[in-house]
Amino acid sequence: MKGNIFFVETGIERVALKARNEKNLQFTSLIHHVTVKEVFRNLKQIPKSSSSGVDGISRDECIDEFLKNHKSIINSMHKMSYKAPPVRRVYIPKPGKTEKRPIGVPTIMDRAIQGTIAEVLSKIYEEDFLNCSFGGRPNKSAHNALCTLQNYILAKKINWVFEAARLQRREPP
Q1: Could you read off the pLDDT of 42-61 as tens digits, one per residue?
Q2: Which superkingdom is the protein from (predicted)?
Q3: Are the C-beta atoms of residues 15 and 54 closer than 8 Å to each other?
Q4: How many C-beta neighbours within 10 Å does residue 63 have?
Q5: What is the Cα–Cα distance from 40 to 47, expressed in whole angstroms?
Q6: Where in the chain are the domains?
Q7: Please, are residues 81 and 151 in contact by the beta-carbon 8 Å criterion?
Q8: CA-based, 20 to 30 A from 151: which of 108, 112, 131, 166?
Q9: Of 40, 25, 31, which Cα lies nearest the Cα of 12?
Q10: d(C-alpha 24, C-alpha 5), whole Å
């Protein structure tokens, strides 16, 4: 029809819209939003120089492997039979100290899968967060938080100050 504008939404955009409009809605199945296209996009975003996981496969080798086996990888997730491989434990030095802290390095394929799943979940969670929440959110940094705080301080009379400190997280033994 002339004059009508139609917007084509992806499935995940519809999920975000539902999350925004139906606050009490419980999502029961989201794995079908993890697609070959999205996993491949996340895989290509991983830097070539990234450390490999326990499998020793580089990013480029992982891309080749994914192109050959993408159907079985995605099907295993959709059938809920995907098992994340073990992570490679690495100890990195703490700045200015002799002690080292452990980190787990997942395989490159698992990083791409985790990134895709995180994006799907983020579409839902982002709808619940307030604009004044900055921690760990896409396009929201500590600098954004400080700018917002500065704007509030300059615009209004401040009667109180809240100080926060980030506590060190301990790794389980």
Answers
A1: 999 999 999 999 999 999 99
A2: Bacteria
A3: no
A4: 19
A5: 13
A6: 11-130
A7: no
A8: 166
A9: 31
A10: 30
